């Protein structure tokens, strides 16, 4: 039987080549894993800055604020006013107020509770920010141009029952405030969406349900959305006139 002997240098080179190939395969696997990790981190970092919207509409037609910041001893009551847009005779949009939510709120121990009607007649509702959404050069798309809305404005009152009486004196308002956003309670007569940017730079990203909704607007009035901003803690404040 014949035996074939390899030169020692050939054997060593072969071993080195085998080891190098093995290390190369390991490095390729590591590189692939790093790429996948990078893709995962990229997707995670580009997630929305808003909470996912809830599928169910807000069913509660009331607000319970257990604690309000910056209150004064002059406050005796709270009442709500529904604000909506109307068009004047000279075709100009203006903000009007329906003051028929009287005697629905109670204020005590630095907090308040107030209830709203389940529905409003259309004569007391108006379009959503029409100067921005209905202007000729607006890029905001409304899924239903006939949708009507109204926003709640909460007054601090000197009257114990929160109603407008001869003793009423406007002290200020109650507002739900975060670091960068303000939350508003809004009523809509139907479900609709408002998406896009107005000619004045105000961005809309809203999906309203029929009934009561919470709408969030940036303090610099650059954006309005129905998606709750992430990592934003909201607190009730009394804001004096």
Oligomer: single chain
Our measurement of the CA-to-CA distance between the termini, rounded to an integer number of angstroms, reads 109 Å
H/E element sequence: HEEEEEHEEEEEEEEE
- As a percent range, the share of strand residues is 35-45%
Fraction of helical residues: 10-25%
Describe this structure in words.
The chain has 241 residues and is an alpha+beta fold. It folds into 2 domains: 1-47; 62-240, no CATH class. It contains 2 helices and 14 strands; from the N terminus they run αβββββαβββββββββ. Strands 2, 3, 6, 7, 8, 9, 10, 11, 12, 13 and 14 form an 11-stranded mixed sheet that branches. A hairpin with a 4-residue loop joins strand 12 and strand 13. The longest helix is centred in the N-terminal third of the chain and has 38 residues, at 8-45. The radius of gyration is 30 Å and the shape is globular. It starts with 7 loop residues before the first helix and ends with a strand. Mean pLDDT is 77; it is low at 1-22, 30-47 and 53-57.
Please supply descriptive tags for the structure shown above.
3-stranded antiparallel β-sheet, 241 residues, single chain, disordered N terminus
